[in-house]
Amino acid sequence: MTNSTIDIFRQNLKYYRNKLGITQDKLSEISGISSDYLSEIERGKKTPSFKRMVIIADALNVEVYKLFKPL
User: How far apart are CA 25 and CA 34, in angstroms?
Assistant: First the structure.
């Protein structure tokens, strides 16, 4: 995955989370992924595994590929 691809993922994660009107804490509850880890993903400190990307997409009710498409 290139840096630009993961940057798109991070931006889209935040976009879809905000579109649903949920906090990182709420996404954490829905996904089972810690809010600290979600914060680190959004800030570019961590890169999630594909498995976690799928879990996040499911929690956001979006298809995984949408998290990789530029908005």
Answer: 8
